[in-house]
Fold each of these.
Amino acid sequence: MEQKLKAILVGAIINNQQHFSDSMEELYHLAAACDIEVVGKIIQKLHRENSAYYIGRGKLQEVQTLIAQKAADMVIFDDELSPSQIRNLEAILQCRIIDRTVLILDIFGQRAKTREAKLQVEIAQLQYMLPRLVGLRAALSRQGGGRGARLRNRGFGETKLELDRRKILGQISRLHKELEKLVAQRQNQRKRRKKNEIPVIALVGYTNSGKSTIMNALIEMYNSQAGKHVFEKNMLFATLETSVRSITLPDNKTFLLTDTVGFISKLPHQLVKAFRSTLEEVAEADMLIHVVDYANHNYQQQIEVTRATLKELGADNIPTIYAYNKTDLVPCENFNLERDCVFISAKEKTGLEQLADAIRQMAFTRYVNCELLIPYDKGNIVAYLKDNANINSTAYNSDGILISMECKEADYKRYQEYANTGPL
Ligand SMILES: Nc1nc2c(ncn2[C@@H]2O[C@H](COP(=O)(O)OP(=O)(O)OP(=O)(O)O)[C@@H](O)[C@H]2O)c(=O)[nH]1
Ligand SMILES: [Mg+2]
């Protein structure tokens, strides 16, 4: 079995920033997801980041000693380093220096399955590499391309480093072209969906908050079609590709539910850019379900990170319901019920009806209550309404079937000639 790479984590508490320990814990999990063993941790309080070394020159001595003590292969910084910081640090510490961004890119690289996701990750990786080529090449030649010189990621490996800047630029533009074709296909699908006037609801939130589990729970509850489940797992970035499922509530209200990639603190801007086409699904949704991992003590900051990312995507003005998930892990039972929020457990399947109610109220506004008297020879209309409206009662009168129901405003207008009364 290949031995794991050993790493030391380095973080700086800049200006007494809060949530620092959570960020370091998250870095630990990111490293673990890349199959890296963390053997030490160094933290420094700073007023501002050191432009040459990120942390202070003096502190580097400590890092150097720890590297020797623990026989570490690499040092991982909890922030994106500039190309010159990487060069300077590698020159002094004589080992591989990587940052939070590289770990996230590596995880995305491992998880990408569809051609579209693979293209997007590769573009982001090349964009990250481009300004850092000199440093990467120097590090590689120093370490002879050996064990310490690479993350497990293939696409990010040595062969890529042999390419010069121009070649990489050419490759980025080729990948972009291929991506554009795939994106155009998906945009067409979206346009078609729009024409159907079915509301599109997107699940958004921090990675591992339970978006995919909620999607599966709703599929099971309302659409027991087999084989439609999406992948859910206790790991960072389980979902990288967008999935769309049609869900029909018992009152025949149908919507499209979208599950997509989760967010994280300091999500690399290269990734946000490369995944823009995937994330457009979010920006174009009619409503968002912002999923919060209520069992995570840091959930409030995760909400903020998610909101900031949504803003970056231009999706901050979409009607949103907050779904506080994993309540089965939270001892308190008196959840304070605010507007636009529901408390659920996707695992135990509790609170899902409240979530469905919230969806009804927010996404199905253009509905009316009405009574239609459908002549007996218009059986096709009755059949349509059975599938598409929420029928409260049916009475078989001498002059036709009297249906009292709640339906789309558009459907009411379509059959207005049969209206028994105006909209109620
Ligand atoms: N205890 C508990 N665990 C849950 C609940 N909902 C989801 N989980 C677990 O949380 C983990 C992450 O769930 P996912 O649904 O994959 O999370 P996600 O938000 O889709 O994550 P990404 O795709 O990585 O962004 C899984 O191990 C789930 O079983 C819940 O209500 N209670
Ligand atoms: Mg997921």
Amino acid sequence: MVKEMFPRTIAHGYSFCNRTDEQEILLGHINSGNHVVLIAPRRYGKSSLSHQVTERWISPQSKRMGVGISLYSAYDESAAVQLIVTGAQKAINKIMPLMPDMEAIQKFLKSFSGLGFEAGLKTDGIGFGIKFDLERKSAKPLDITSIGAILTKMDDLAHSLGWKIVFEMDEFQEIASLKHGKSIEAQIRDAVQFSVATSYIFLGSNRHMLEQMFTDSSRPFFSMCHSIRLNRIEAVHYQKHIGDASRVNWNTEMDIELLDLILSLTERHPFYVNSLCHELWKQEKVPVRSDVLDAWRCVVEDRVLPLRSEFSHLSATQKAILNNLADEPEKQITSISFITKLLLPTTTIKDGFRQLQNKDLVYMNDNGAWAVMDPCLAYDLRNQRNPQEL
Ligand SMILES: Nc1ncnc2c1ncn2[C@@H]1O[C@H](COP(=O)(O)OP(=O)(O)O)[C@@H](O)[C@H]1O
Ligand SMILES: [Mg+2]
């Protein structure tokens, strides 16, 4: 059995399907020292793409390193600062031992005094590195202005010794919900703006918030980064990817009808393609149609409760729109036929639809029609009214 062919976590190596163009664009930006924001709905493959490209790029021989932090647990300013500083510390620790002499190291450490952090040497018995004292023993309020300085020092150090860094910040939108989030954004912006050896990659699971942070002209990150938007992976790439996995696992071709069934049930949503295939690839024999349908029901059963709960909190208008789009995607939500189906005023439909867009509950499919983002929710909504769907 090929265990990691269809992971439900980050896809990498042979579990990574295509995204050739996006990989090259991201790699090009990193090589040019540009900063990037990856924008896509959750579970479309932002982390996987960033990881795949960074892994390709990293090379200790060529003095290229990657550091990644996730801000999902940044519940307050000091937690956010701690996460960012820990990321910078990781990078500094890789480079600092390569400094020419102890005097240079001591000077570097001293330059942190006054930033609100105590920087000292630590040793693990093999090598040594920098350690910031983040346990704030004094009652002094946390100095957010230190973040920019620490990131800049990391960049200076890398530059002085010929290193390049990719610094990935996942769940970056969490910063925006903090009370002093704007100050932290401004600090990071300063470091990003003047960095010479570091490329920053920003990503996050809340597309709407992230988009606002990077495209609103009043926000610190406006026009600071190149954006890369991810769509669903094209059918032709998935057919090859899943077909190859079939040959590896069962030494046989999978019928094209079966491949198409997998892609139509999951609507090529990367998370659901992997969830369904993960179930199927547990089988001893190459699956037949009924196996695919059974496995899809298992996936739906596994996923549907939180989706129903999210649905239950929507307004009546939003529910009505989703129900209709689950039945039939719609090119023009203000068309007479759609309004007639919903029996609601156009402005009400427009408002409800905009809220659904902001919550990433709808997306435009390949035919240019609006559809329900989550194929499992769409299936469940249809199945509630017409249980014979499968
Ligand atoms: N290029 C890809 N090839 C195959 N599977 C992928 C690809 N990108 C993402 N996936 C799968 O999709 C799901 C979500 O991926 P992830 O990178 O965590 O998305 P995001 O960071 O956008 O939330 C995971 O199951 C992952 O394995
Ligand atoms: Mg992610």
